[in-house]
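Residues determine shape. Next comes a sample protein:
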Amino acid sequence: MTNLISRTALAVTAALLLAAPLPASAQSTPKKEPTAGQLAARERMKKCSAEWKDAKAAGKVTKDMKWPKFWSDCNKRIKGGDKA
């Protein structure tokens, strides 16, 4: 009988905890807008990705060339300097 009462109390407590509203800090907050630098990096990645796809389709990519190396070179080229 004691076991039944304790299980029921535990079930009621769990149900109340799950039904309780979340505190304000746990609710979803509005997302931050990306910075200008982040937007520029995304645009460069899109351009380099399109170049990569075209180069692979045309067979201009060597076997040892991988995306990270291609991205690094392309990113530097598009940024217009040796610094990435």
Notes: The radius of gyration is 27 Å. Residues 55 and 61 are 6 Å apart (CA to CA). Helices lie at 2-19, 36-58, 67-79. The chain has a mean pLDDT of 84.
